[in-house]
């Protein structure tokens, strides 16, 4: 057994086959480089800056050499590097899950994949030491420092001659399991990668990679020496012909058969479209909130990311804020969205810091600084769901400004200056400032966020828990139906929908036609005009601004709707539906509150507050008065305003109604 500082170079003790000599290994490898043909081309003969060799090619050409590589991978690779200095070996087999790796894989060449969590700085380490004896000046080249000299000199006589040592660049990268490999209710497993020379600085935090490695153990810690990087992007974009056929059927609104995954026509879905089928598959056990689910569908598919000629990047991912009363299933929607996204990270704002959401510079076990990506970085290419967004500190909210719009995180700490990608959508949920949404307060009073954060959300939904008898009956029946039978009720399987989303995002890149562009321009001009008119009429300045960002939001939504149908062209219908979603979300949030004909919202709120003060003056604490007498005293204000004022006082627990609402009693 031969050990060096980083790895085991051989543990094949029970193999009785004779070993090939180093010279034979070198000759056979040179023969492979010069003679192997693929599609009648000598693909390895031409000199390259980095020689990337497919191990399946080596196995097909010289199986004996391939077996020798499997027995003594580190030693044989050192011989290969004498012929080609910059070498990568790629094993194109199915990757092994990190949690499935055990002692049987020690000293084996395997393929693993995961998401890079952190990356250390590059460390210069010696591969061989040039030693000289201080007494007799004898020189030796070893990978360790011996205690004694062969010439009977004193103990510890050797000194290192640095300029004659051979060194290599080393970097340590920690990866974790991909989100698809993590079992439910389990924490992700991690693995430490060791990269050397030409492989360093090719993996950054947040990137999902597939690598060919040699599994080894140093002291009590396991590690993976990387010998080749299979892919530096997500390796899940390969689809079978059967899948593509099924996806084309789904794009027409046809539900595939669960038993054989073959598409079939369902009579109940005869008039369905892909839009209605997919919306029905988003959190199907949550009743109602159709427009919210439609917006989440747009978020999952996303628009087209564009890089302009001057280098400016226009994001294609949508950001959505769900602001609502407790108990309206906001958190469940976030969980469902996280499960449906090909890459999804769920976090809570109360337990998250700015560094935990973006990136942090930490010290590793050796005291060196390394960069570790946060939730937004790990969500690159997917969705980051942030619950309890209102519980985040203001400084933490400000930290994600760049991540939400420019989709990067800039770091300048501890001598590390870099930028990480956060090309993901943000789905956030928050409660109003006063716990429940108060219709008698302005939108600015109900939302404790700054304008800079609010403008970065493409859609803002206000979800209120209103007491409406017909709706409550429908919801109760829906919940009881779930308890009775929770089988598939005509919606897509989660895994099929996840693959469909991945297929659409990787294959379809829609663009607007002339009519769609003209419609969007008209919408933006009219929206700005209406907001200006509202402010001139005495309305308060909205905390939710209507800017160019909102125009781009509608554009992204229209592109997402086209992508959902696997359509390369954005039609006028897509634009109209995107405008409708914007109007029922953000524009509705801007205008949220009670109205009375002939008065703007600020006017009615002020009137109701004056009425509340008058009612409290007429009712000393602990006394009561009939509703009719109050109405007679305040008849100049009108019945509607009086009823709204009493309703507000009841909700504020300032008064209570007795005798079936006929008597009003003032509370302390």
Automatic annotation (TrEMBL):
Entries under SUPFAM superfamilies matching the protein: Nucleic acid-binding proteins, P-loop containing nucleoside triphosphate hydrolases
Entry-linked Pfam families: MCM (PF00493), MCM5_C (PF21933), MCM_lid (PF17855), MCM_OB (PF17207)
InterPro entries for this protein: MCM, MCM5, MCM5_C, MCM_CS, MCM_dom, MCM_lid, MCM_OB, NA-bd_OB-fold
Domain MCM C-terminal AAA(+) ATPase: 274-479
Keywords of the record: ATP-binding, Cell cycle, DNA replication, DNA-binding, Helicase, Hydrolase, Nucleotide-binding, Nucleus
PROSITE patterns, per the entry: MCM_1 (PS00847), MCM_2 (PS50051)
BP term (GO), one: DNA replication initiation
Coiled coil: none
Top-level division of the source organism's lineage: Eukaryota
Catalytically driven reaction(s): ATP + H2O = ADP + phosphate + H(+)
Subcellular location: Nucleus
A cellular component term, taken from the record's GO annotations: nuclear pre-replicative complex
Any one Gene Ontology molecular-function term assigned to this protein's record: single-stranded DNA helicase activity
EC assignment: 3.6.4.12
Family the entry assigns: Belongs to the MCM family.
Entry function: Acts as component of the MCM2-7 complex (MCM complex) which is the replicative helicase essential for 'once per cell cycle' DNA replication initiation and elongation in eukaryotic cells. The active ATPase sites in the MCM2-7 ring are formed through the interaction surfaces of two neighboring subunits such that a critical structure of a conserved arginine finger motif is provided in trans relative to the ATP-binding site of the Walker A box of the adjacent subunit. The six ATPase active sites, however, are likely to contribute differentially to the complex helicase activity.
Subunit field text: Component of the MCM2-7 complex.
Protein name: DNA replication licensing factor MCM5
Organism whose genome encodes this protein: Hamiltosporidium magnivora
């Amino acid at each position: 057994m031969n050990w060096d500082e980083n790895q085991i170079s051989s543990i094949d003790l029970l193999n009785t086959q004779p070993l090939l000599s180093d010279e034979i290994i070198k000759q056979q490898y040179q023969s492979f480089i010069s003679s192997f043909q693929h599609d009648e081309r000598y693909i390895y003969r031409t000199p390259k800056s980095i020689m990337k060799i497919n191990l399946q090619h080596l196995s097909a050409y010289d199986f004996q050499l391939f077996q020798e590589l499997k027995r003594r991978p580190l030693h044989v690779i050192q011989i290969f590097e004498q012929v080609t200095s910059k070498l990568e070996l790629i094993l194109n087999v199915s990757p092994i899950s990190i949690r499935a790796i055990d002692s049987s894989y020690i000293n084996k060449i395997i393929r693993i994949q995961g998401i890079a969590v952190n990356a250390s700085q590059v460390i210069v380490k010696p591969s061989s030491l040039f030693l000289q004896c201080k007494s007799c000046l004898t020189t030796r080249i070893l990978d360790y420092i011996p205690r004694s000299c062969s010439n009977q000199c004193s103990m510890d006589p050797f000194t290192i001659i640095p300029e004659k040592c051979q060194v290599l660049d080393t970097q340590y990268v920690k990866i974790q399991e991909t989100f698809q490999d993590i079992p439910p209710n389990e924490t992700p497993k991690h693995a430490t990668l060791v990269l050397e020379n030409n492989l360093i600085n090719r993996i950054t935090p947040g990137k999902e990679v597939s690598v060919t490695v040699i599994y080894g153990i140093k002291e009590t810690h396991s590690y993976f020496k990387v010998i080749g990087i299979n892919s530096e992007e997500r390796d899940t974009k390969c689809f079978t012909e059967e899948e593509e056929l099924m996806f084309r059927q789904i794009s027409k609104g046809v539900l595939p058969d669960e038993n054989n995954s073959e598409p079939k026509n369902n009579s109940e879905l005869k008039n369905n479209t892909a839009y209605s089928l997919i919306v029905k598959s988003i959190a199907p056990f949550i009743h109602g909130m159709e427009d919210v689910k439609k917006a989440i569908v747009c978020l999952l598919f996303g628009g087209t990311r564009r890089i302009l000629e001057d280098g400016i990047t226009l994001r294609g991912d949508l950001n959505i804020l769900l602001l609502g009363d407790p108990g309206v299933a906001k958190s469940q929607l976030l969980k469902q969205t996280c499960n449906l996204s090909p890459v999804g990270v769920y976090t809570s704002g109360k337990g998250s810091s700015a560094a935990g959401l973006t990136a942090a510079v930490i010290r590793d076990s050796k005291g060196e600084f390394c960069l570790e990506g946060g939730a937004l970085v790990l969500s690159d290419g997917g969705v980051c769901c942030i619950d309890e967004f209102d519980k985040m500190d203001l400084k933490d909210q400000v930290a994600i400004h760049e991540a939400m719009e420019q989709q990067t995180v800039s770091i300048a700490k501890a001598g590390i200056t870099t930028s990480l990608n956060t090309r993901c959508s943000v789905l956030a949920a928050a409660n109003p400032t006063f716990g429940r949404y108060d219709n008698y307060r302005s939108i600015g009073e109900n939302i404790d966020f700054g304008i800079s954060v609010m403008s970065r959300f493409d859609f803002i939904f206000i979800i209120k828990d209103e007491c409406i008898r017909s709706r409550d009956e429908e919801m109760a029946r829906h919940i009881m139906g779930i308890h009775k039978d929770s089988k598939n009720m005509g919606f897509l399987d989660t895994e099929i929908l996840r693959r469909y989303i991945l297929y659409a995002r990787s294959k379809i890149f829609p663009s607007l036609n002339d009519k769609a562009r003209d419609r969007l321009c008209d919408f933006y001009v009219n929206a700005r005009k209406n907001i200006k008119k509202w402010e001139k009429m005495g309305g308060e300045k909205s905390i939710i601004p209507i800017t160019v960002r909102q125009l781009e939001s509608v554009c992204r939504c229209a592109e997402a709707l086209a992508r959902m149908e696997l359509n390369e062209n954005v039609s006028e219908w897509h634009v109209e539906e995107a405008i409708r979603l914007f109007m029922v979300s953000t524009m509705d949030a801007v205008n949220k509150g009670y109205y009375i004909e002939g008065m703007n919202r600020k006017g009615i709120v002020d009137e109701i507050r004056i009425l509340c003060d008058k009612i409290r003056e007429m009712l000393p604490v602990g006394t009561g008065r009939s509703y009719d007498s109050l109405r007679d005293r305040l008849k100049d204000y009108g019945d509607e305003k009086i009823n709204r004022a009493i309703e507000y006082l009841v909700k504020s627990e300032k008064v209570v109604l007795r005798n079936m609402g006929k008597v009003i009693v003032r509370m302390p």
